Amino acid sequence: MIDMREPDPDRFSARQWPDWSFWTDPRGGGSGVHRGRVRSVVVNGLMMGFLATWVIAIADGRYGPVRTGLVFGFLGCYAVAYLLVLWFGPLALRRQRIAMVAAMFALGATPALILGSPAYLTGLTYAIATGLMLLPLRISLLLGVGAAVAQIAWMIVRDGVVAWGQVLTLVAVTAILGIVYALTFTIGHLRLAREQIRRMAVDQERQRVARDLHDVLGHSLSTMTLKLGLTRRILETSDNTDAALAEIRDLDDLCREALSDVRATVSDYRTVSFATEVAGARMALRAAGVHAELPAAADAVAPELQGVFGYVVREAVTNVLRHSDAQRCVVRVGRDWLEVADDGTVPAEIVPGHGLTGLAERMSAVSGSLEHGRGPHGGFRVLARGPATGGAA
């Protein structure tokens, strides 16, 4: 009984059904794959010239017109069926593949039975080749061995001697056709894999740019909004133009910094400093009227975590500014951990957005982890752990 279970696609197995789906994958090479499919049919069709020697040998009239006509008819059907199987077989369902291979063996063995000669079982070469193309390797190999054994047994029973040249012809031509199919199959999958790698590289770069732009613009625009609001209130409620000008200068610096960050992000040259992000968080929280408790120095953080912890501070503080009514924000750090907590209102259901999802990806890239949710004393807490953290922060 044929095993219909799905094997692991990433591991070769003799039970694995040949997967020719790349022939129909619209993203897997398009016209190039179509040309490869046509080329395979043409090359294998030309190899059917082996049957021309049979036509010449049978046409001498020694088998009589009836048997000769029947044999020619079956040979013609055999050749046409072979070409049709080459074209449609790889895209057929498994039960259809089994039916195609069975029909090929029936058509290939019939001329030998009509003529009563085991020599013509050599024609089963093409039926065995379709088995190699459509069936699991363990089944197609058994069919090939079975055909060779049947030919040898018939020769012994009929003539008492084995014509090893004919048997070797069956084996050799089958091996050649099997190699042709294997090369076609391998080249097609390599082309598809190359196309998939190209698409994955493009997608990863798009995700990187989208994530970095979200981190850069989210924080910068939130801080600018707060600065603009503070400047407007100063101008509306007092004549303190010096304070308003100071806020406008900060806005000018923020705009230039954001523009520089965007350019660096697009060109993949942007680097993040934990110390810089802490300084930016201090300015943004002060502008929002949030009491900030920040680390005095960034030296306590491991050098390899400086960049990713900078992103955590940036995104966590941005969330405090945008989504929270917090009055207090605390940032605590260790060598391989970072905690950002506030005392704002936390919704009953917390759905992580693009920012927290991006932070989780960044922490995963350095073998770390990210936790977020309601803090032990209320408010929202973000806890980042580096790869060396063994317990809770």
TrEMBL record:
<protein>
    <submittedName>
        <fullName>Two-component sensor histidine kinase</fullName>
    </submittedName>
</protein>
<dbReference type="GO" id="GO:0016020">
    <property type="term" value="C:membrane"/>
</dbReference>
<keyword id="KW-0902">Two-component regulatory system</keyword>
<dbReference type="GO" id="GO:0000155">
    <property type="term" value="F:phosphorelay sensor kinase activity"/>
</dbReference>
<keyword id="KW-0418">Kinase</keyword>
<feature type="transmembrane region" description="Helical">
    <location>
        <begin position="71"/>
        <end position="92"/>
    </location>
</feature>
<dbReference type="Pfam" id="PF07730">
    <property type="entry name" value="HisKA_3"/>
</dbReference>
<dbReference type="InterPro" id="IPR036890">
    <property type="entry name" value="HATPase_C_sf"/>
</dbReference>
<feature type="transmembrane region" description="Helical">
    <location>
        <begin position="163"/>
        <end position="190"/>
    </location>
</feature>
<feature type="region of interest" description="Disordered">
    <location>
        <begin position="368"/>
        <end position="393"/>
    </location>
</feature>
<dbReference type="GO" id="GO:0046983">
    <property type="term" value="F:protein dimerization activity"/>
</dbReference>
<keyword id="KW-0472">Membrane</keyword>
<keyword id="KW-0808">Transferase</keyword>
<dbReference type="InterPro" id="IPR011712">
    <property type="entry name" value="Sig_transdc_His_kin_sub3_dim/P"/>
</dbReference>
<feature type="domain" description="Signal transduction histidine kinase subgroup 3 dimerisation and phosphoacceptor">
    <location>
        <begin position="205"/>
        <end position="271"/>
    </location>
</feature>
<feature type="transmembrane region" description="Helical">
    <location>
        <begin position="133"/>
        <end position="157"/>
    </location>
</feature>
<feature type="transmembrane region" description="Helical">
    <location>
        <begin position="41"/>
        <end position="59"/>
    </location>
</feature>
<keyword id="KW-1133">Transmembrane helix</keyword>
<feature type="transmembrane region" description="Helical">
    <location>
        <begin position="98"/>
        <end position="121"/>
    </location>
</feature>
<keyword id="KW-0812">Transmembrane</keyword>
<dbReference type="InterPro" id="IPR050482">
    <property type="entry name" value="Sensor_HK_TwoCompSys"/>
</dbReference>
